[in-house]
Amino acid sequence: xxxxxxxxxxxxxxxxxxxxxxxxxxxxxxxxxxxxxxxxxxxxxxxxxxxxxxxxxxxxxxxxxxxxxxxxxxxxxxxxxxxxxxxxxxxxxxxxxxxxxxxxxxxxxxxxxxxxxxxxxxxxxxxxxxxxxxxxxxxxxxxxxxxxxxxxxxxxxxxxxxxxxxxxxxxxxxxxxxxxxxxxxxxxxxxxxxxxxxxxxxxxxxxxxxxxxxxxxxxxxxxxxxxxxxxxxxxxxxxxxxxxxxxxxxxxxxxxxxxxxxxxxxxxxxxxxxxxxxxxxxxxxxxxxxxxxxxxxxxxxxxxxxxxxxxxxxxxxxxxxxxxxxxxxxxxxxxxxxxxxxxxxxxxxxxxxxxxxxxxxxxxxxxxxxxxxxxxxxxxxxxxxxxxxxxxxxxxxxxxxx
Length: 402
What we know:
Helix content is 54%, strand content 7%. It is of the alpha/beta class. Helix 1 (11-20) links the parallel strand 1 and strand 2 (28-33).
């Protein structure tokens, strides 16, 4: 049984949560405490799978509590439930909380907790969940980060120009979407486009995020094996995102398909920062045994960049269709999809943009999907386009910017 720890100094709110969650007692073990220090004691006795905390508490506030949880129990999902937010507090939470909820509607908190717990099915190993949970900063591609900082200093820069640069770096784009969809900024509908996120957050919030040394770090080149250099991963993400966008043009899945392409290899951002030695050994194993990188990663790390990236984005609250597509990109059959959905757009885009040479297979995160591509594949999913049309679309728009 999963354990959920609720922390709030207001006993009336705790009583309300206790009453609200009564129907879930057969599924979850729930503990309600009135201070951060009591919560730490509970975690020391038996760690919780999910912690839900208020921000404004005496002695130890929510941010201090979450910082200690991240340090000592990084595998725990960290959620803020608070009606209070200001710029300083929000910036502190960017690296501490996975999701931020403010007075959620009926069922919303339960849904968020349940969805985060179901992500354990994506990343089974507790040690690997710890890798994702202890992330503080994601490395940004140096050239993109420098250009974005310079543009943000211009007084008359447009939303479109900022969004276009953010699109070039999956780490920055993912973080912008996470913040835009938090309760502190949330619109009445989920934001899935970078330009909408930038426009909704406003220049000041985006500038604070981009310039925060606590959120982004400079990518160390010496950690990356051949083929997994930041620029190469960035270029690959751009190609796949562009192809996924044109393949899904005019469909309801178009925005999610683009995001799946942009974020499909973001797991490498995590692995290169948190376990670079293991990743280098996986790369060497892939070359020696002539196997795809994702299989070498599973042999040596216990999971692949696909599951790591999906787990992180799922914790951040990105759309389920995007998370699922990224998780299943190398094992599409397991998803048992029966229509041309985000996963189908992603794996088709990967195949059509891949360099199927021996060098590409050996030195990079080439797709290596587990499906046979062609008209039979698209027809099995009732796709609105043929394989020939799909190839022509991708080739025609290969030079377009996102």
